[in-house]
Amino acid sequence: MKAYTLIVCAIICLTSEKCYGKSKPKPSCQYPPSQWCKTLEIAIECKVQKQCLELNATKPDPADPKVVVGLYYESLCPGCRGFLVRQLFPTWVMLMDIMDVELVPFGNAQEQQHGGKYEFLCQHGDEECQGNMIETCIMNVTEDAAFPIIFCMESSSNVLSAAQPCLQLYAPSVKWETIMSCVKGDVGNKLMHMNALKTNALKPPHEYVPWVTINGEHTEDLQDKAMSSLFSLVCSMYKGGKPPACTGALKKLDRSYC
Ligand SMILES: *[C@@H]1O[C@H](CO)[C@@H](O)[C@H](O)[C@H]1NC(C)=O
Ligand SMILES: *[C@@H]1O[C@H](CO)[C@@H](O)[C@H](O)[C@H]1NC(C)=O
Protein backbone atom coordinates (compact mmCIF):
# COMPACT_ATOMS: atom_id res chain seq x y z
CA MET A 1 0.00 0.00 0.00
CA LYS A 2 2.86 2.29 0.96
CA ALA A 3 4.73 1.92 -2.32
CA TYR A 4 1.48 2.61 -4.12
CA THR A 5 0.97 5.76 -2.07
CA LEU A 6 4.44 6.91 -3.07
CA ILE A 7 3.70 6.27 -6.73
CA VAL A 8 0.37 8.10 -6.62
CA CYS A 9 2.06 10.92 -4.76
CA ALA A 10 4.82 11.11 -7.34
CA ILE A 11 2.24 11.41 -10.09
CA ILE A 12 0.44 14.16 -8.20
CA CYS A 13 3.74 15.92 -7.49
CA LEU A 14 4.87 15.72 -11.10
CA THR A 15 1.61 17.18 -12.38
CA SER A 16 1.23 19.89 -9.76
CA GLU A 17 3.25 23.05 -9.21
CA LYS A 18 2.27 23.12 -5.55
CA CYS A 19 4.75 20.45 -4.73
CA TYR A 20 7.72 22.65 -5.54
CA GLY A 21 6.59 25.75 -3.70
CA LYS A 22 7.72 28.97 -5.33
CA SER A 23 11.00 27.71 -6.74
CA LYS A 24 11.45 26.67 -10.37
CA PRO A 25 9.61 23.45 -11.11
CA LYS A 26 12.03 20.57 -11.57
CA PRO A 27 11.82 16.83 -11.09
CA SER A 28 12.34 15.90 -7.45
CA CYS A 29 15.04 13.34 -8.26
CA GLN A 30 16.33 11.22 -11.09
CA TYR A 31 15.15 7.81 -9.84
CA PRO A 32 11.88 5.98 -10.54
CA PRO A 33 9.65 5.33 -7.47
CA SER A 34 10.59 1.64 -7.48
CA GLN A 35 14.15 2.63 -6.48
CA TRP A 36 13.45 5.38 -3.97
CA CYS A 37 14.07 3.19 -0.92
CA LYS A 38 16.93 1.19 -2.40
CA THR A 39 19.65 3.15 -0.60
CA LEU A 40 19.67 5.91 1.98
CA GLU A 41 21.39 8.26 -0.52
CA ILE A 42 18.61 7.87 -3.08
CA ALA A 43 15.97 8.29 -0.37
CA ILE A 44 17.55 11.57 0.71
CA GLU A 45 17.88 12.83 -2.86
CA CYS A 46 14.23 12.00 -3.52
CA LYS A 47 13.16 13.50 -0.17
CA VAL A 48 11.41 10.35 1.01
CA GLN A 49 13.78 9.15 3.74
CA LYS A 50 11.12 9.23 6.47
CA GLN A 51 8.71 7.20 4.37
CA CYS A 52 11.47 4.76 3.41
CA LEU A 53 12.48 4.19 7.02
CA GLU A 54 8.89 3.27 7.82
CA LEU A 55 8.56 1.17 4.71
CA ASN A 56 11.76 -0.66 5.61
CA ALA A 57 10.57 -1.19 9.18
CA THR A 58 7.25 -2.71 8.07
CA LYS A 59 8.77 -4.94 5.40
CA PRO A 60 8.20 -8.68 5.73
CA ASP A 61 11.01 -10.64 7.35
CA PRO A 62 13.45 -11.59 4.56
CA ALA A 63 13.94 -14.96 6.31
CA ASP A 64 10.40 -15.95 5.27
CA PRO A 65 10.56 -17.40 1.76
CA LYS A 66 8.68 -15.51 -0.93
CA VAL A 67 5.97 -17.20 -2.96
CA VAL A 68 7.45 -17.98 -6.38
CA VAL A 69 4.96 -17.66 -9.22
CA GLY A 70 6.17 -19.29 -12.44
CA LEU A 71 4.55 -18.44 -15.77
CA TYR A 72 5.12 -20.66 -18.80
CA TYR A 73 3.75 -18.68 -21.72
CA GLU A 74 4.01 -17.48 -25.30
CA SER A 75 4.47 -13.82 -26.16
CA LEU A 76 1.54 -13.60 -28.59
CA CYS A 77 -0.95 -16.02 -26.99
CA PRO A 78 -4.03 -13.93 -26.06
CA GLY A 79 -4.76 -15.88 -22.85
CA CYS A 80 -1.13 -15.46 -21.73
CA ARG A 81 -1.19 -11.74 -22.42
CA GLY A 82 -4.45 -11.36 -20.51
CA PHE A 83 -3.13 -13.21 -17.47
CA LEU A 84 0.22 -11.42 -17.45
CA VAL A 85 -1.31 -7.97 -17.89
CA ARG A 86 -4.43 -8.26 -15.72
CA GLN A 87 -3.35 -10.63 -12.93
CA LEU A 88 0.37 -11.29 -12.70
CA PHE A 89 1.79 -7.79 -13.07
CA PRO A 90 -0.75 -5.95 -10.86
CA THR A 91 -0.38 -8.63 -8.17
CA TRP A 92 3.41 -8.30 -8.30
CA VAL A 93 3.21 -4.51 -8.03
CA MET A 94 1.18 -4.88 -4.84
CA LEU A 95 2.91 -7.93 -3.35
CA MET A 96 6.53 -7.81 -4.60
CA ASP A 97 7.78 -7.94 -0.99
CA ILE A 98 6.31 -11.43 -0.59
CA MET A 99 6.45 -12.78 -4.14
CA ASP A 100 8.91 -13.48 -6.95
CA VAL A 101 8.00 -14.00 -10.58
CA GLU A 102 9.70 -16.41 -12.96
CA LEU A 103 8.80 -15.93 -16.61
CA VAL A 104 9.54 -18.68 -19.13
CA PRO A 105 8.56 -17.69 -22.67
CA PHE A 106 8.41 -20.83 -24.80
CA GLY A 107 5.14 -22.68 -24.15
CA ASN A 108 4.02 -24.90 -27.01
CA ALA A 109 6.98 -23.97 -29.22
CA GLN A 110 9.16 -26.70 -30.71
CA GLU A 111 12.90 -26.77 -31.11
CA GLN A 112 15.21 -28.58 -33.49
CA GLN A 113 18.95 -28.76 -33.42
CA HIS A 114 20.85 -27.84 -36.58
CA GLY A 115 24.62 -27.99 -36.29
CA GLY A 116 25.05 -26.76 -32.74
CA LYS A 117 22.30 -24.13 -33.06
CA TYR A 118 18.63 -24.46 -32.25
CA GLU A 119 15.75 -23.50 -34.49
CA PHE A 120 12.38 -22.71 -33.04
CA LEU A 121 8.86 -23.12 -34.33
CA CYS A 122 6.19 -21.15 -32.47
CA GLN A 123 2.45 -21.69 -32.18
CA HIS A 124 1.68 -18.13 -33.31
CA GLY A 125 4.35 -17.94 -35.98
CA ASP A 126 7.76 -16.33 -36.41
CA GLU A 127 6.66 -13.08 -34.79
CA GLU A 128 5.95 -14.97 -31.61
CA CYS A 129 9.40 -16.58 -31.69
CA GLN A 130 10.82 -13.04 -32.01
CA GLY A 131 8.72 -11.83 -29.08
CA ASN A 132 9.78 -14.79 -26.92
CA MET A 133 13.42 -14.16 -27.77
CA ILE A 134 13.29 -10.39 -27.15
CA GLU A 135 11.68 -10.96 -23.75
CA THR A 136 14.21 -13.64 -22.87
CA CYS A 137 17.09 -11.31 -23.77
CA ILE A 138 15.49 -8.43 -21.85
CA MET A 139 15.42 -10.68 -18.76
CA ASN A 140 19.07 -11.53 -19.30
CA VAL A 141 20.30 -7.96 -19.87
CA THR A 142 18.13 -5.69 -17.71
CA GLU A 143 17.66 -6.66 -14.10
CA ASP A 144 14.90 -5.06 -12.01
CA ALA A 145 13.35 -3.45 -15.06
CA ALA A 146 12.66 -6.68 -16.97
CA PHE A 147 9.14 -7.35 -15.71
CA PRO A 148 7.88 -3.78 -16.20
CA ILE A 149 9.33 -3.84 -19.74
CA ILE A 150 7.66 -7.17 -20.55
CA PHE A 151 4.37 -5.91 -19.05
CA CYS A 152 4.72 -2.78 -21.18
CA MET A 153 5.19 -4.90 -24.32
CA GLU A 154 2.40 -7.36 -23.56
CA SER A 155 -0.07 -4.59 -22.69
CA SER A 156 0.60 -2.74 -25.96
CA SER A 157 -1.41 -3.21 -29.14
CA ASN A 158 1.68 -4.48 -30.96
CA VAL A 159 3.96 -6.53 -28.71
CA LEU A 160 6.96 -6.46 -31.04
CA SER A 161 6.97 -2.81 -32.04
CA ALA A 162 6.51 -1.83 -28.37
CA ALA A 163 9.74 -3.55 -27.35
CA GLN A 164 12.16 -0.72 -28.13
CA PRO A 165 10.08 2.15 -26.63
CA CYS A 166 9.32 0.01 -23.56
CA LEU A 167 13.03 -0.66 -23.05
CA GLN A 168 13.77 3.04 -23.44
CA LEU A 169 11.05 3.88 -20.90
CA TYR A 170 12.13 1.54 -18.10
CA ALA A 171 15.83 0.91 -18.78
CA PRO A 172 17.07 4.06 -20.56
CA SER A 173 20.71 3.13 -19.94
CA VAL A 174 20.42 -0.15 -21.89
CA LYS A 175 20.98 0.15 -25.62
CA TRP A 176 18.54 -1.55 -27.99
CA GLU A 177 21.57 -2.92 -29.87
CA THR A 178 22.58 -4.86 -26.75
CA ILE A 179 19.21 -6.61 -26.75
CA MET A 180 19.39 -7.22 -30.50
CA SER A 181 22.85 -8.74 -30.38
CA CYS A 182 21.53 -11.19 -27.77
CA VAL A 183 18.42 -11.87 -29.89
CA LYS A 184 20.43 -12.59 -33.04
CA GLY A 185 23.45 -14.25 -31.45
CA ASP A 186 24.47 -17.38 -29.63
CA VAL A 187 23.46 -16.07 -26.20
CA GLY A 188 19.78 -15.72 -27.17
CA ASN A 189 19.85 -19.10 -28.89
CA LYS A 190 21.27 -20.76 -25.78
CA LEU A 191 18.86 -18.97 -23.43
CA MET A 192 15.85 -20.00 -25.53
CA HIS A 193 17.11 -23.59 -25.50
CA MET A 194 17.19 -23.34 -21.69
CA ASN A 195 13.56 -22.14 -21.75
CA ALA A 196 12.74 -25.21 -23.86
CA LEU A 197 14.48 -27.52 -21.38
CA LYS A 198 12.70 -25.90 -18.43
CA THR A 199 9.31 -26.13 -20.14
CA ASN A 200 9.82 -29.74 -21.22
CA ALA A 201 10.91 -30.69 -17.70
CA LEU A 202 7.58 -29.57 -16.16
CA LYS A 203 5.93 -32.20 -13.99
CA PRO A 204 3.16 -32.73 -14.84
CA PRO A 205 3.94 -31.73 -18.44
CA HIS A 206 2.09 -28.59 -19.52
CA GLU A 207 -1.08 -29.11 -21.55
CA TYR A 208 -1.77 -25.50 -22.44
CA VAL A 209 -0.51 -21.97 -21.83
CA PRO A 210 -0.60 -19.86 -19.71
CA TRP A 211 0.66 -22.59 -17.35
CA VAL A 212 1.17 -21.43 -13.80
CA THR A 213 3.38 -22.94 -11.11
CA ILE A 214 3.41 -21.91 -7.46
CA ASN A 215 6.72 -22.65 -5.73
CA GLY A 216 7.47 -24.97 -8.66
CA GLU A 217 4.24 -26.92 -8.27
CA HIS A 218 1.33 -27.13 -10.71
CA THR A 219 -2.07 -28.55 -9.84
CA GLU A 220 -5.44 -27.92 -11.43
CA ASP A 221 -6.57 -26.32 -8.18
CA LEU A 222 -3.60 -23.90 -8.07
CA GLN A 223 -4.08 -23.04 -11.74
CA ASP A 224 -7.80 -22.30 -11.24
CA LYS A 225 -7.10 -20.16 -8.18
CA ALA A 226 -4.30 -18.29 -9.98
CA MET A 227 -6.58 -17.58 -12.94
CA SER A 228 -9.45 -16.30 -10.81
CA SER A 229 -7.56 -14.37 -8.14
CA LEU A 230 -3.80 -14.64 -8.12
CA PHE A 231 -3.63 -11.89 -5.50
CA SER A 232 -5.63 -13.92 -2.95
CA LEU A 233 -3.67 -17.06 -3.80
CA VAL A 234 -0.28 -15.42 -3.18
CA CYS A 235 -1.49 -13.93 0.11
CA SER A 236 -2.81 -17.31 1.25
CA MET A 237 0.35 -19.20 0.23
CA TYR A 238 2.71 -16.80 2.03
CA LYS A 239 3.87 -18.36 5.29
CA GLY A 240 5.30 -15.23 6.92
CA GLY A 241 3.44 -12.38 8.60
CA LYS A 242 0.88 -11.16 6.09
CA PRO A 243 1.41 -7.61 4.77
CA PRO A 244 -1.44 -5.06 5.18
CA ALA A 245 -2.23 -5.41 1.45
CA CYS A 246 -3.32 -8.99 2.23
CA THR A 247 -5.17 -8.43 5.49
CA GLY A 248 -6.64 -4.98 4.97
CA ALA A 249 -5.25 -4.02 8.38
CA LEU A 250 -4.90 -0.30 8.92
CA LYS A 251 -1.42 0.94 9.71
CA LYS A 252 -0.93 4.41 11.08
CA LEU A 253 2.06 5.43 9.07
CA ASP A 254 3.44 8.81 8.21
CA ARG A 255 1.83 8.93 4.79
CA SER A 256 3.51 10.99 2.17
CA TYR A 257 0.68 13.23 1.03
CA CYS A 258 1.66 16.07 -1.26
C1 LIG B 1 16.21 -0.11 3.56
O1 LIG B 1 16.76 -1.38 3.88
C2 LIG B 1 17.76 -1.83 2.97
C3 LIG B 1 18.12 -3.25 3.30
O2 LIG B 1 18.04 -3.51 4.67
C4 LIG B 1 18.96 -0.88 3.06
O3 LIG B 1 19.97 -1.28 2.18
C5 LIG B 1 18.49 0.51 2.66
O4 LIG B 1 19.54 1.43 2.78
C6 LIG B 1 17.31 0.94 3.53
N1 LIG B 1 16.80 2.19 2.99
C7 LIG B 1 16.72 3.32 3.71
C8 LIG B 1 16.20 4.50 3.00
O5 LIG B 1 17.04 3.37 4.88
C1 LIG C 1 22.75 -14.12 -19.29
O1 LIG C 1 23.07 -15.21 -20.12
C2 LIG C 1 24.40 -15.65 -20.02
C3 LIG C 1 24.63 -16.73 -21.07
O2 LIG C 1 23.80 -17.83 -20.87
C4 LIG C 1 24.66 -16.16 -18.60
O3 LIG C 1 25.99 -16.56 -18.46
C5 LIG C 1 24.33 -15.04 -17.62
O4 LIG C 1 24.44 -15.51 -16.29
C6 LIG C 1 22.94 -14.53 -17.84
N1 LIG C 1 22.69 -13.38 -16.97
C7 LIG C 1 21.60 -13.26 -16.24
C8 LIG C 1 21.50 -12.02 -15.40
O5 LIG C 1 20.71 -14.09 -16.23
TrEMBL record:
Signal peptide: 1-21
Chief subcellular location: secreted
UniProtKB keywords: Disulfide bond, Glycoprotein, Immunity, Lysosome, Oxidoreductase, Redox-active center, Secreted, Signal
Domain of life: Eukaryota
Keyword Mitochondrion: no
Residue stretches making up the Saposin A-type domain: 22-62
Record keyword Calcium present: no
GO cellular component: extracellular region; lysosome
Record localization: Secreted; Lysosome
Pfam family, one: GILT
Enzymatic class: oxidoreductase
EC number: 1.8.-.-
Family statement drawn from the similarity comment of this UniProt entry: Belongs to the GILT family.
Subunit structure: Dimer; disulfide-linked.
Functional note: Lysosomal thiol reductase that can reduce protein disulfide bonds. Facilitates the complete unfolding of proteins destined for lysosomal degradation. Plays an important role in antigen processing.
Protein name: Gamma-interferon-inducible lysosomal thiol reductase
Natural source organism: Megalops atlanticus (Tarpon)
